[in-house]
Amino acid sequence: MNCEEIKNLMMGYIDGELSDEQKSLVEKHIEECEKCRDEYKSFVRIKEVTEDMRLADLKEDIWAGYWKGVYKRIERGAGWIFLSIGAIILLAFGMFEFIKSIIFDPSLSLIVKIGIFSLTLGVVILLVSILRERLFAFKKERYRDIER
């Protein structure tokens, strides 16, 4: 094997992920090639240094400050507003198209058309009402500021 192939296997060798055949090839090459041996030693040192490194977690008081922050409240409020507006627009458009197709369908009687129109309008009003209720409840949630 040449040096490039050994370099590709070197981290697997250090991590103990190679087959016995691959291990022996790497070991034999490292014994014979000073350049690869030096690179192997530097990889081992890097692994020793970085093995116990971990990212530090943010403290609870920092997170608590973030969750109470004005930007978070604005972002969430704006998100709910745009979600509500989008839902209303899409539901209204869907209702309009649905009713338009029913009104111009000559095979349906007037009573069926009125029933479908009423049902659709009721569903849209209920969905908008639920969205508004959830937004209101979110803003007034009593336990939102309690730390877990």
Overall description:
The chain is mainly alpha-helical and 148 residues long. It has helices at 3-14, 20-32, 34-50, 60-68, 70-103, 110-139. Helix 1 (3-14) crosses helix 2 and helix 5 (70-103) runs antiparallel to helix 6 (110-139).
Chain-wise SSE layout:
Elements (H helix, E strand, L loop, with lengths): L2 H12 L5 H13 L1 H17 L9 H9 L1 H34 L6 H30 L9
Q: Return the string of H and E elements.
A: HHHHHH
Strand segment count: 0
What is the alpha-carbon Rg in Å? 33 Å
Average pLDDT metric: 82
Helix content class: over 70%
Shape: elongated
Please describe the biggest sheet, giving its number of strands, its sense, and whether it closes into a barrel: none
**How widely separated are the two ends?**
57 Å
Q: Classify the secondary structure makeup into a structural class.
A: mainly alpha
**The number of domains:** 2
The low-pLDDT segments are none
Approximate strand percentage? under 5%
Helical segment count:
6
Descriptive keywords:
single chain; 148 residues; mainly alpha; elongated
In short:
The chain is mostly helical and 148 residues long. The chain has helices at 3-14, 20-32, 34-50, 60-68, 70-103, 110-139.
